Amino acid sequence: MLTPNINLESKTILVTGAAGFIGANLVTALLNTVKDIKLVGLDNINDYYDVSIKEYRLSEIRKLAAAKPDCTWTFIKGNLADKALIEKIFTESKPEMVVNLAAQAGVRYSITNPDVYVESNLVGFYNILEACRNHPVEHLVYASSSSVYGSNKKVPYSTDDKVDNPVSLYAATKKSNELLAHAYSKLYNIPSTGLRFFTVYGPAGRPDMAYFSFTNKLLKGETIQIFNFGNCKRDFTYVDDIVEGIKRVMERAPEKKNGDDGLPLPPYRIYNIGNSTPENLLDFVTVLQEELIRADVLPSDYDFESHKKLVPMQPGDVPVTYADTSALEQDTGFKPNTPLRTGLCKFAEWYKKFYNI
């Protein structure tokens, strides 16, 4: 296991995408577990999905930060693609570490709205890299995605696999992030770590994700579509496991070393963060409906069969995601392991409370 070489206490950390699902949970965890931390959050709070959920996450952070007098929380509403704003944040806040989670998410949305992916995922990430080049940063941690594996036939997916055949623009932007980070690590000796997340879920998550959108539709009496005739498998990863993985990676920056030619070797790593237990979509839907009934979100006599429809695969989708997390476990001592039922139970309970059902 790698020995932590960064102490998060008393650090100033910039978290982009701080109103997002993973970002808000990371900020919450850091406030709860790290003393004297100074957190700067950036988010444009766009309307890709229900803004009230983003506002809810931020309100929970504000309440927590108010109860932590030794910690500092500053939120900035702004766009990652605004280079002048990013430079201003780095100049004034002087972050010692950056966790870049801001991105336009979603595979299918990238087919109909490509412009926003180029702006946020490419231009925005370039701005972060430029700021890290021009200001001293101990470690840049950034979100990649399991989507970079495309229709890779070999499973489980390993970070040693070749990932040169993305099947969506979203995946292409995430692979581009990894390439850009590698170039900047090599050229400017910036320690960077990319994290390939596998289907993250949990309370206050993204409404465009299957478990959330299925719940919304079932509650309205609408029919849910199960792609690839139910034969897809997903490595569902509970958000608390994702956050624990991020925290451990943050504390372990790649070391700066010189190669045999005397030039710096890129201080660069990539990890998968997934549950390593792919679930069949039909089994997943069964567990979801059981937990929605148990939480009284849906009645016990709900006719699920009449509200399910098996349909073909959608453009940009892949039949299976399956993470090999051996490198993460070996280097950080952590392996995501929250069972699907446990995570969906917590989601169902949150859903009932948030929507006052």
UniProtKB/TrEMBL annotation:
Organism superkingdom: Bacteria
Gene3D superfamilies referenced in this protein's UniProt entry, alphabetically: NAD(P)-binding Rossmann-like Domain, UDP-galactose 4-epimerase, domain 1
Keyword Cytoplasm part of the UniProt annotation: no
Transmembrane regions: 12-31
Domain NAD-dependent epimerase/dehydratase: 13-274
Alphabetically ordered keywords of this record: Membrane, NAD, Transmembrane, Transmembrane helix
Name of this protein: Nucleoside-diphosphate-sugar epimerases
The species this protein was found in: Ruminococcus champanellensis (strain DSM 18848 / JCM 17042 / KCTC 15320 / 18P13)
Organism ancestry: Bacteria, Bacillati, Bacillota, Clostridia, Eubacteriales
